[in-house]
Amino acid sequence: MTAAAAATISILIVDDSPLVRHGIRAAIESEPTSEHLQIVGEADTAFSAVAEAQRLRPDVVLLDLRLPDDSGLNTCRKLRELLPATCVIVLTSSTDDRSIYDSVIAGAQGYLLKEIHPATLIQAIEDGFAGRPVFTGDIAMRVLDIIRQNQTRSDTPSALASLSPQERRVLAAMAEGHTNKEIADLLGLSTNTVKNYIANMFQKLGIERRSQATALYLNNRPTRPE
């Protein structure tokens, strides 16, 4: 069992369909590997999602993009602003490229489709809780393709060039999916030092989430090793 799996992970489910919410809850709770997951609440609107998230302060929010009173994207932005420690994972039936791209830019840690297998969903929740980007199937490659198509490269190289060599090593390790502790072990640093490097990188690059950092790095991967 991973470190993430050893901890209790609290979850808020946000979807306007009671049937879908019930199905997500049942899918999670029926898996034998879900004993460390705790569904602490549900919400059916953007307004109630923000209110419940502020009240419950869940570790992970599973968020549908289609809500009756506001978009899931706006909800994601509000959650990230109000609760920066909470991981937001989009769980939706929307497969269009624009939704995927906008979700990443809004700060979502991942993008999953509702037909996901329950065991894969549990692994995704664990990965998101651990700070890893969460994309299943061909979504990961589509994210990279969308970033390449929509993000102008004029500003990005100069932004990456502003990183120190050590910051670029931390970024590369982060893009490979390593946790802060794993990065610290790889580079011979303390966990607090890694956190400081990541905070500085995010400020320089104008981003907030590891998923954004991963897409940025992979889209502008150095052609030669540091």
Q: Could you give a short account of the major beta sheet?
A: 6 strands, parallel
Order of strands across the main sheet: 2-1-3-4-5-6
Structural class: alpha/beta
Q: What is the CATH topology of the largest domain? A: Rossmann fold
Distance between the termini: 34 Å
Number of helices: 12
Strand content: 5-15%
What order do the helices and strands come in, and which of them pair?
Elements: H1 3-6, E1 9-14, H2 18-30, E2 37-43, H3 46-56, E3 60-63, H4 72-82, E4 87-92, H5 97-106, E5 110-113, H6 118-129, E6 134-135, H7 139-150, H8 156-161, H9 165-175, H10 180-187, H11 191-205, H12 210-219
Parallel strand pairs: 1-2, 1-3, 3-4, 4-5, 5-6
Describe this protein's structure.
This protein has 226 residues and is of the alpha/beta class. The protein contains twelve helices and six strands. The protein has two domains: 3-146, Rossmann fold, CATH 3.40.50.2300; 151-219, Arc Repressor Mutant, subunit A, CATH 1.10.10.10. The protein has helices spanning 3-6, 18-30, 46-56, 72-82, 97-106, 118-129, 139-150, 156-161, 165-175, 180-187, 191-205, 210-219, and strands spanning 9-14, 37-43, 60-63, 87-92, 110-113, 134-135. A six-stranded parallel β-sheet has the order 2-1-3-4-5-6, sandwiched between helices. The chain is globular. It starts with a helix and ends in a 7-residue tail after the last helix.
Short descriptors:
12 helices, single chain, 6-stranded parallel beta sheet, 226 residues, alpha/beta, disordered N terminus, 2 domains
